[in-house]
Design a protein that fits this description.
There is one protein chain. α6 (106-121) runs antiparallel to α7 (125-141). This protein has helices at 37-43, 45-50, 56-60, 70-82, 92-98, 106-121, 125-141, 151-160, 166-178, 181-186, 194-208, 230-235, and strands at 21-26, 31-36, 62-65. It is globular and about 65 Å long. The chain has 12 helices and 3 strands, in the order ββαααβααααααααα. 50% of the residues lie in helices and 7% in strands. β1 and β2 form a beta hairpin. It is mostly helical. It binds zinc ion.
């Protein structure tokens, strides 16, 4: 099923007359999102399974996600219709909940980490890669000074994802690459998850024992993509420096 989702598969014709609309109820208040069903099921095997077959959800064209954050879900809906992440061209109120121009990038980092976790949970591989690329550029490649991801976001990622996931590995690499003594000192009282600290420590000790010195060339975005096949990795447009 996964292999059917490729960048080359035809996009659904949502402009067609009488297109089916699905409803997704998100968060404790059951915020309603009305989305073209073909669009939702094209990009997510989770929604494809939920909205087809004999499930109650399929009959009612409705999926309920009470534990998800409506803000994060809206970023997914925005991507479905626009095939890009939020930017300055979007409605001001929407863009301001995604990113703040005055906080050294922290809000945007948090938005991307939450979006990545949503993609992981509901199998949305193409958006997961887009979020990874944006996070990589934002934290590692930015020309503006960007702070390291906040400890609370590291905690969130490690509580929701496998520690071998692309995002968890990226967070460890970013702290090892950019974290200097001054930053670690400022984070003295921060609550980091134990598996995260263990990974950081283990990478630092490798360096201390004469291992790789974190050369810049060792950090490239495709390392964090979680491609399903060698072919997909081979076709990735950001396999090295990109
Ligand atoms: Zn890749």
């Amino acid at each position: 099923m996964e292999s059917k989702i490729t960048q080359h598969s035809a996009k659904p014709r949502i402009s067609a007359k009488n297109a089916s609309i699905a409803t997704v109820l998100v968060g404790p208040q059951k915020d309603r999102f009305h989305i073209h069903k073909d669009l939702l099921t094209h990009y997510s095997p989770f929604f494809r399974a939920a909205l087809s077959g004999n499930f109650k959800e399929a009959e009612e064209h409705t999926v309920t996600l009470p534990e998800e954050c409506p803000k994060t879900f809206e970023y997914f809906v925005h991507w479905l219709y626009n095939q890009r992440l939020p930017d300055e061209d979007d409605a001001t109120e929407f863009h301001e909940q995604w990113s703040s121009p005055t906080d050294d990038g922290e809000m945007k980092t948090g938005s991307l980490i939450h979006l990545y976790v949503l993609c992981d949970k509901y199998s949305i591989p193409q958006l997961k890669i887009a979020a990874t690329n944006e996070l990589f550029d934002h934290v590692h490649r930015s020309t503006e000074p960007t702070n390291l991801p906040e400890p609370e976001h590291v905690e969130f990622a490690f509580s929701q994802l496998d520690e071998k996931s692309g995002l968890c590995r990226f967070l460890v690499d970013m702290y090892c690459f950019w974290g200097d003594m001054e930053q670690w000192d400022a984070l003295r009282d921060a609550e980091f998850p134990k598996p995260f600290l263990f990974k950081v420590l283990s990478q630092y000790s490798t360096v201390a024992c004469g291992g790789p010195q974190y050369p810049e060339a060792g950090i490239f975005v495709c390392k964090y993509h979680e491609h399903k096949t060698g072919r997909e990795q081979h076709d990735c447009s950001r396999t090295s420096w990109g």
